[in-house]
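Can you give me the bound-state structure? Components:
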Amino acid sequence: MDLHFRDVEPTDDERATVDALLGPPESSWEGAERTEADLRWSSGGHAARSRRDLLLPGLHALADRVGWISEGALAYLCRRLTVAPAEAYGVATSYPLFSVTPRPATVLHVCTDLVCTAAGASALCAGIESRLGGLKALEGLEGGDRVAVRRASCLGLCERAPAALAVKAGDPVRTAVAAPATVETAVLAATAPDSAPQEPPAEAAVPRTGQPAPVLLGRVGVVDPSSVDDYRAHGGCTALRRAFALGPAGVLREIVDSGLVGRGDAAFPTGHDGRAVPVGRVWQAAASRPDQPRHLVCNAHESGPGAFKDRVLMEGDPYALVEAMTIAAYAIGARRGYLYLRGEHPRAARRMRRAVDRARARGLLGDDVLGRGHAFDIEIRRGAGAYVCGEETAVLRSIEGYRAEPCPTPPSPPSPPSPSEKGLFGGPTVVVDVETLVSVLPILTEGPAASASRLVCVSGSVDRPGVHELPYGAALGELLARAGVRPDLRAVLVGGAAGGFVRPDQLDVPVGSGVVIAFDGTVPLPRLLSRVAEFFRAESCGLCVPCRIGTVRQEEALHRLVDPAGPAAADDLALLREVGRAMRDASLCGLGRSAWNAVESGVDRLGVYG
Amino acid sequence: MTVTSLGVPRRLLEFALDGEPVCVPEGTTLLDACRAFGKEIPALCQVGTLAPGGACRLCVVEVEGADALVASCCREAEPGMRVRSGSERVRHSRRTVLELLASSVDLSTTPQAMGWIEEYGARPDRFGPGAARSEEAPILDNGLVVRDPGKCLRCGNCVAACGGQGRHTFALAVSGRGAETRVGVEYDAPLTDSACVYCGDCLDVCPTGALSSRTEFDLRVAGTWDEPAQTATTTVCGHCGVGCRLTLHVQDNEIVKVTSPHDGPVTRGHLCIKGRFGHQYIQNRD
Ligand code: SF4
Ligand code: SF4
Ligand code: SF4
Ligand code: FES
Ligand code: FES
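Here's the bound-state model for the whole set.
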């Protein structure tokens, strides 16, 4: 492949950043000094092309070091990986966290999503912007001590809303979280990330409400998340030993018997037409495929408003995820696992990286796990903000170094149980979420009956926001009582942005989802519905027409309806219904298909517009 | 000698199409199956030479048991499937998608668009005068290929033809996200500064006329582009010895467009700058 490059060069910093990730260049084609050997050797060839999946890490490295991705830097990265610059530009611009125009080294991401809006994000944002200046005003200004303020979709810190995340590019990159944020704390985080106060520990997001004793969250706040030994002292690795004793087929049998179902619903509406995915059967199907290599992908990219349990588990009990991934890989016969987590969760990424490194050093990962002859290792990949990467095929494309978009023709039949036949890098692949993986541990240690609890993120108008562990079938009202719901409850959103609102007199139903947000009367309901619409418009990947344009039309109509007494209100409601129905029916993936859910329930069940 | 592969004979499978049992070879898309049995399916972004991209969603049909409609260009027929190609649900989505699309881009050069809008009773103006549109002006940065973002459906066909499914030139890519999605060169550089070799293959797969030759663009601006008056003659390109088939579109004794039959034995629709645009120079010389 002959690549064409415009006449652009990286700065020394940019070149060094790319070289630090990829190693020094080997030929002048890749940007090294020209040598005799180059006359006989022409391009990056297959070896480089097979490193396409390093494009996303490369973009991250540049963003971390410089704050934005310049044309010279991108061209250099492309030379090193044999990727066409137009394509790489397309990839970079499919992620909201990357900027391809100059911006200051520090960016303050201020969440204006649902939970934070209900907690006063508008005023907070206005206050911060008047102190620091908005991103628009600073566009084109690079470096220096300036701060760009970016209004963001949910940062996954909803239990401490309103939230802000400061990222200061440099060597190394610095991050600081202000949550709950005030104008003062957010400005401090942005201007002096090193002296900003520490975040509370992970267990602060796990309200202890007594009975019953938590299983999945049992170690959060109890174990030292940095220590393998402490993990072992608290029951860690028992499940893995049991797994080795059972053998892969035995592990699969236990999981099938437990009836474990996938729980990715908190973050992203499941692609399987809403039906529960029987985890054991999917894994068995993957294990029985003759082709190799097989891959395991843990999708920890939960990112709708109100969803944060993956973050809490990874921050509070990181070795549990390492162990669970190892067991899953053993069961399906995969030697490599990818953990795809959110770019907005630097602490979870740090802790997972440390846990993986230490586990490897202690023989829990590597060529011979626990001396039992099973080879497995974990690679951590950071997403860069696109909610659509919660989708099963989009996360694979993202890891492979393509745009954050789902696959229009998924290779597996759309009905479960079926793992992707041609998933990651064309091999059989199992994609699974954090909670489902971690649920495998008690199944192996306590037996198949142990998987009876689920995690629910509760945020909004409650006294004890956080991740609650509940027995299956517990009622919504019971959960809200546990979480200390405040008086003046106006509406509850179950299932996040993709879910539906219920009225305060409808709480006598089982909790059917991992995300519950309670709203009081502080922010008018029409404003909340507009914010949901804004979320979908902002997160649409743009691949298909109904979602790309439908979400824009939905938001426009809801903005008009802020004055529901207007003469055109009835027309707008009819229009919303028709557009909503087409988005649900004709969109390519779960994002577009669920973009009308919450708004519809707001109209029909809450009667927001009378 | 030309060797034509006959391929492995494909097995037939049976499914129900609008209540009638039908048989198609394995691997047939629902779109092709519908068409083979005389069902009219509007399909904008699918061109036979490229893998389906599933962007326009006009070709949706109803498959019993699936929660959502499926894009018929993207889904192969399966034994026992029950498919409805024109139910109220299907027609509703098609109508709304047409409204959404026509309210955001200019479909005046999209063949069939007006017919579909009429057939489905779509009202693109229902979103009001405030509805956001792609308003960007046509990009005239070179003498051969005109890009008009205001007409672009963002289907990515041009990207596929220029890149991995065609030329492997990779001059164009889809960039941005959501409503900001667009097609272009890295950092929005002009085409003259890109990898483009002006083969014009992208023009050939563009369903909306967002990509056109400069000749066609100028004639349209002048109001003298007259498709019904054009004749098409297929010949063999004389610029080199490969033997690409050319279809010359002639209006008033002038070649106004060159295409290549997609089923052409040598190049399957691909051309190079000489075949595609060489006529401009020939004509300019005399
Ligand atoms: S439904 Fe939305 S997010 Fe999904 S593919 Fe279509 S445009 Fe992208
Ligand atoms: S003319 Fe050819 S090379 Fe240029 S953009 Fe189109 S397909 Fe690519
Ligand atoms: S220019 Fe044409 S082919 Fe390319 S994306 Fe737009 S509509 Fe599709
Ligand atoms: S952090 Fe603001 S809504 Fe989740
Ligand atoms: S023709 Fe099938 S999605 Fe466009």
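A couple of observations. The longest strand of chain A covers residues 374-382. Residues 454-604 of chain A form a domain with the Ubiquitin-like (UB roll) fold (CATH 3.10.20.600).
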